[in-house]
Amino acid sequence: MSKAAQLAALIGSGQAQGDRNLVINGAMQVAQRGSVTGVTSGYGGADRFQFSRGGACTIDMSQSTDVPSGQGFPNSMKLDVNTADSSLAAGDFALFTQKIEAQNTQHLKKGTASASSVVASFWIKSPITGTYILELYDFDNSRHINKSYTINTANTFEYKTITFAGDTSGALNNDNGTGLQLGWWLAAGSTFSGGTLQTDWGADTAANRAVGQVNAVGDAANNIFITGVQLEIGDVATPFEHEDFGTTLRKCQRYFAKSWSQGSAVTTNAGAIGAACVGNVNRAFGNVFWPVTMRAAPTVTWYSGSTGTVNKWRNASQGTDITAASAIAGIGQSGYGFVLSSGIVGVTDTLQGHYQAVAEL
Questions:
Q1: With contact defined as beta carbons under 8 Å apart, do 338 and 322 qualify?
Q2: pLDDT tens by residue, 223-272
Q3: Could you give the CA distance from residue 10 to residue 174 in angstroms, rounded to a whole number?
Q4: What's 201's DSSP letter?
Q5: Can you give the pTM of this predicted structure?
Q6: Of the CATH numbers 2.60.120.260, 1.10.10.10, 3.20.20.70, 2.30.30.140, which one belongs to the domain with range 3-253?
Q7: What is the DSSP annotation of 112-161?
Q8: What is the pLDDT of residues 160-187, one digit of tens each?
């Protein structure tokens, strides 16, 4: 059956309708945080994707315009090895992941006799050829399945598709916690590679997670690029589901949102949130609403609307920063109301601030 016929069959089955990709921001087009250097565990570059490691390795994460030719992708995620880990100890590892909200996975029917297989597809470019491991990990039941793929040519984008069988054990919770995690192993010490690769679903066994994985973080000159990430129900990868920027941004803002624009510094961006002083009690109050309902009540950091100083508001009338700590109260998934009190706030003063709200899995 041709690729077109396979896709038509999937569409006819109802499995390849719009919004079929379980991965958010697979085209790496939204990068609210911008470039982040020296990452040991955390986010940076393209939204929703996370790096973690054990050992000496650190990574610079950024959005790149280095992409596979003719595929319609404007961006990729660049993982630039900052500090190399050339001699892996047993517990050393490097892992690039995206966590998927459990309530978005219910149609996979995991834990039932009708469990559906899923197929991952992506473009990857690496300077290190050889065997790599892609993992699907079930956080609710501590189960995993791991498949190998090969980088054949150094520093060349290659398209990969990997199918994971359905899992008839371990139903996923219908909640806003982590259900599944899709993970690209980049390095693995013997703790994670000393056993037999877990190519069928099974209970978490560390030694079986990354058997055969090359060390792609062993040289500070190494740069790895990934884009076009899709995870969908079925056995056959369909063409990447491109979506408009605004749709992807709204999906990302469920987990991370900020009040200043992508690609600019907080100190140079206009449009800070304002607060008005009232009465004669040196008090300002107002409401902040996140751009979308967030996954959970977020952790919020305030920044001065002029200097960008953390945990400060800008008193624009007096040209000073004041402490924002008293504003952080009653935070919810949709926003919150705040009250600011300070001895330097006058009844006619105008306050300005920016926020960052984090509700990542």
A1: no
A2: 999 999 999 999 999 999 999 999 999 999 999 999 988 877 787 666 67
A3: 26
A4: -
A5: 0.93
A6: 2.60.120.260
A7: STTPPPEEEEEEEE-SS-EEEEEEEEETTTTEEEEEEEEE-STTS-EEEE
A8: 999 999 999 999 999 999 999 999 999 9
